[in-house]
Amino acid sequence: MKKRVAILISGGGSNMVSLVDSMGEDHPAMPVLVLANGAEAGGLEKARARGVETAVVDHRPHKGDRASFEEALHARICEAQPDILCLAGFMRVLTEGFVRRWDGRMINIHPSLLPKYTGLNTHARALAAGDTEAGCSVHEVTAELDAGPLLGQARVPVEPGDTPATLAARVLAQEHILYPQVLRRFAAGDKTPVFLP
């Protein structure tokens, strides 16, 4: 029985596309929902074009009330009955209460070599620190931001003259390779970390 996967996005959904496109006939998982926290998210149309059900739970009407937003989010996700949640550029920090409901079933991709540079502006921070390499990480989601068990990493050399934008573009290309590999293993019950050169 294939695992059912819901993917949460906030923007263009390029990582969502890489995940959906990887879930072919031989994959242990299948996409059942792409959900965004705003109707303007470009990834929604890409998901619809791939025949995946979409939904929007806009966070803005819940301003200042994260609990009510997360209740609405949880309720809509549950309608799709997913086994796994993939955060793919979902730009909302989730509370411990929400995370606990999906403990061991929610994964995230983050654009740094965790535990370095949790949170935002990862590429600028790597360049400011003089790092010689950057990259991306996939991890299980826990209540502590970007601190869950590591499921995979891919490394990218920092090149002379790199800007946050040029570094981000090279890291993103690796995200599109790493995340599908990790999801395939995770859906099959294998949490052994994947390390790409």
From TrEMBL:
One of its GO terms (biological process) is 'de novo' IMP biosynthetic process. Pfam families: Formyl_trans_N. N(1)-(5-phospho-beta-D-ribosyl)glycinamide binds at residues 13-15. GO terms for molecular function: phosphoribosylglycinamide formyltransferase activity. Gene3D superfamilies: Formyl transferase, N-terminal domain. It catalyses: N(1)-(5-phospho-beta-D-ribosyl)glycinamide + (6R)-10-formyltetrahydrofolate = N(2)-formyl-N(1)-(5-phospho-beta-D-ribosyl)glycinamide + (6S)-5,6,7,8-tetrahydrofolate + H(+). Keywords: Purine biosynthesis, Transferase. It comes from the Bacteria. The active site is at residue 110. Catalyzes the transfer of a formyl group from 10-formyltetrahydrofolate to 5-phospho-ribosyl-glycinamide (GAR), producing 5-phospho-ribosyl-N-formylglycinamide (FGAR) and tetrahydrofolate. This is Phosphoribosylglycinamide formyltransferase. It comes from Roseovarius nubinhibens (strain ATCC BAA-591 / DSM 15170 / ISM). The lineage of its organism: Bacteria, Pseudomonadati, Pseudomonadota, Alphaproteobacteria, Rhodobacterales.
